[in-house]
Amino acid sequence: MTTFLGIPIRRHADPSSPLREGESFPHAARREVNNEQLRGNLSRATATIRGKRAAVVAECADWEQLRDAGSAIKADVMSRLPELLEELERNVIARGGTVHWAADAAEANEIVARIAKSKGVDELVKVKSMATQEIGLNEYLEEVGIAALETDLAELIVQLGHDKPSHILVPAIHRNRAEIREIFLREMPEVPADLTDDPRQLAMAAREHLRRKFLTAKVAVSGANFAVADTGTLAVVESEGNGRMCLTLPETLITVMGIEKLIPTWQDLEVFFQLLPRSSTGERMNPYTSLWTGVTPGDGPQEFHLILLDNGRTNALADEMGRAALHCIRCSACLNVCPVYERAGGHAYGSVYPGPIGAILTPQLTGMHGHNDPNSTLPYASSLCGACFDACPVKIDIPTMLVELRAQSVDSDRGRKVPGGWSSAMKAMSWIMADDKRFRAAEKGLAAGRLIAGPDKKITKLPWPVNGWSSTRDTPAPPKETFRQWWAANRADGSDGDRAPEHNQKPEGTEGP
Amino acid sequence: MSVGSREAVLNKIRTALDGQKMPGPIPREYDTHGQHAPGSEHVIETLVDRLEDYKALVVRVGPADLADTVSSRLQGFDRIVVPAGLPAEVLEACRRVGRTVFVDGDPAILSAAELDEVQVVVTASRVTVALTGTIVLDGAADQGRRAISLVPDRHLCLVRADQIVETLPEALHLLEATRPLTMISGPSATSDIELNRVEGVHGPRTLDVVIIENS
Fold this sequence. Notes:
The structure holds 2 protein chains of 2 kinds. Chain A is of the alpha/beta class. Chain A has helices spanning 25-32, 36-58, 63-79, 81-94, 105-118, 130-134, 137-143, 153-160, 177-187, 199-216, 242-248, 269-280, 313-318, 333-337, 339-344, 355-366, 387-391, 398-412, 421-433, 436-444, 446-453, 483-490; strands at 98-102, 123-126, 147-150, 219-222, 226-228, 233-238, 252-258, 262-263, 288-293, 303-309, 458-459, 475-476.
């Protein structure tokens, strides 16, 4: 086992959950980046979406003003969450809906199962929803004998491929068309053997596969993109029409919604309906948006249940800075622009929320339980380049929060009896740098580094306790002489350097990183 | 009625927020109105451009040509569903050349399976956003239940020029939140395969828009 400098690595003892699958980011990423197929698929897909997003965002002259409004509305929501949730609850009930409150995943799952069983069904249809993935609803329903059918194309690809989602918006982004064709041929009994990998044909195969299910389903489960407190209106934003099918045709609709999905007023939708589609699929508007308020007699489901889910959100809320992670509208723009996500892929994050937002949201929902917790590694899954902050439609300062979470993770680790590589290295450096003689002696040792580096001037393996540093990076060979050595050699007159040095001999290796 | 951990969740939130600094006012400096009047030539042209970008079919007609246009756009189809409140001349146009027209709710509403046997749905619309190419249905009598504009594979949608606004905020302002609303921007599509957009999945695979110009 290698030590990843500064990053806790050991597995957590907790059983696997959708927010903590069990492997640390550095370990999973090391495996995933070696998957060339995955990297090819991801780099093509993210390049496509980055281009589309940039084009439609450039069309909006008031884009920054929309972001400012979106950010401020979400901050307002968090500060008034109890009263707004009660307002939403009142309005949903007034329009014939039922509101349930779930403190955690287990409670939400039990409520869904209880409602489904009371309808006597052993199968239900689902609209793509991050909240239900987060609580592991499909797995729970399977245990109690109810099949949950994913109807979003990407979710269907993941479900049929017995796979895990790897992206918030396009869970099957790691699959290319040829792989999708193979999955369909294997898992859909009705598809013709001459199915090609033309995306249009693949989409038609999904249509055929799900058509009868839509027309006969009695119960549907959805998430919610937005819930409007002052009207009690729920909104689902989608593309394919599977959402409309689930929200319209069944008799009973169950919506599972994180408590942070709230917005105060109907007017606020004008901000988010502009920000979300352009940021997520790079479209001016997504093909379909459904809005419903409670139950409408004679139109759509005649029984509506809204489940308000906490599941760790109140933990994140308690951290005044970390609270901003709850502003996320799940557009996934930060994933698409992230150089780490593009190479490591979503599975490496070990959570249903991958990418930059996942790296802050996941540890905040679950807490970071010290060195052995894989989620303590997530704040390190970033180069802190800041592209995610620029892309975020609600201006979540992800890089600053990553640094803050790193500090929390290091602080929580200070009490360990056996020091890790990070604190040993830092203590050693501190001891060396605190004394001029020790520092000078250490400099002499750098010559050894040139020997280790060899002719390509790269050190690929450093000794303990700094070996973690070189496990994913090459270290450049030290220069022939240090600055202090150069100074001593060129300023033997004892000059203290208060005049401009007439240097012809620049020390080697000081011209750049 | 509410069940579950209501008080526990609310109390946890209150504790989490205890002693917080309240955020400042919400800046709303974004555009809430377009530069052009509803139904103006510029707004209609923008809408046509957006709809074509979504691969929707679109045609502009004067009020006098509406019925003939509807009839000609239904050519080749013989099973049509319409909401009960469609204008009489449009209903008449649907019924031409012996087409079978089901009026939803008159006498009975159609089941999902029956709707699946229908080829085209013809509806009016409530309001349309030019800049995003978004048509909104609100379930009024000339638009019908959500199911009828969803299950048939082709949607012929009538948009009056004076219902076309330039921006999304203008449209939301005109809508009644508590009605069942469907916002439609082009035919059903997916970007789930390599993030390339492909038109036509579960919703109507063809969206045919008739813009009725002011006389």
